[in-house]
Design a protein that fits this description.
- It is a single chain.
- By secondary structure, this protein is an alpha+beta fold.
- The protein contains six helices and eleven strands.
- Strands 2-3-1-8-7-9 form a six-stranded antiparallel sheet, with helices on one face.
- Strand 2 and strand 3 form a beta hairpin.
- The longest helix has 14 residues.
């Protein structure tokens, strides 16, 4: 999967952007080049959607229809989800949300997002805590312009945010300004430890060059409180980071 969000719509931490990206021979690429690279890696089974200058989503269909490491893509009411992995408690979540039996993980994430955005009484971190499995997902609401599955993110040449599970595409498109995506809003928030702040840890690659940053939970630094101004505010703030 690949997701690219224009810098006007997504604001990654400054620590992710490495100055070394512009000093070596390999420099970050513009999003169009990164998308072409991703599509060329999977020429026969790739699908992509562009949303003007706001975002691009690309999806690689799985080689086998039923797999533990499944890849899903779906859209509903102008909301789109890329989902990797599996929810072990999908059946109970479907019953809890009153969804049809044929609902898959990506469909569930969209429905959960809609519930939180429109009328849900819970903050986003509480809902994510209820998800059991090995998974990662990206939700894009085109109207609003975990940790077991590896995702990576970085900064493209024009400042766009690039997210993908394809490390080679991230390296080619973002040069040194990339890092593993944290299994973790408001800057960034850990859904496992919502009362603790996240701290940027400098990341050095095999060449000894500063290469973005990893974000770790700081057990000594706590936030004052979890914002509870309504479900829509929680999701929209989370979406912007």
């Amino acid at each position: 999967m690949l997701a690219i969000f224009h810098k006007a719509f997504a604001h990654p931490p400054e620590e992710l952007n490495s100055p070394a990206s512009y000093k070596g021979t390999k420099k970050p690429k513009v999003p169009e080049e990164t998308l072409r690279d991703f599509l060329s890696h999977h020429p026969l089974n790739t699908f992509s959607m562009s949303f003007g200058h706001a975002a691009v989503l690309a999806y690689v269909r799985p080689d086998r229809p039923f797999s533990v490491n499944q890849r899903l893509f779906c859209g509903l009411d102008d909301i789109y989800c890329l989902f990797l992995g599996t929810l072990n408690n999908l059946c109970s979540l479907i019953k809890q949300y009153g969804l049809s039996k044929g609902t898959n993980e990506a469909m569930f994430v969209i429905e959960a997002y809609k519930t939180l955005r429109d009328r849900g009484p819970y903050p986003a971190d509480q809902v994510v805590k209820d998800l059991d499995g090995s998974f990662a997902f990206v939700v894009y609401d085109s109207k609003g312009s975990d940790g077991g599955v590896k995702l990576y993110w970085g900064i493209a040449a024009d400042g766009s945010v690039v997210i993908s599970d394809d490390l080679d595409v991230i390296k080619e498109g973002c040069a040194k300004s990339f890092a593993p995506f944290p299994t973790v809003k408001e800057g960034l928030m850990s859904f496992e430890h919502p009362m603790n702040k996240l701290k940027a840890m400098p990341r050095v690659d095999s060449e000894g060059v500063m290469c973005g940053a990893n974000f770790k939970v700081d057990k000594y630094a706590r936030v004052n409180s979890i914002p509870r101004r309504g479900s829509e505010a929680n999701w929209m703030e989370w979406e912007q980071h």
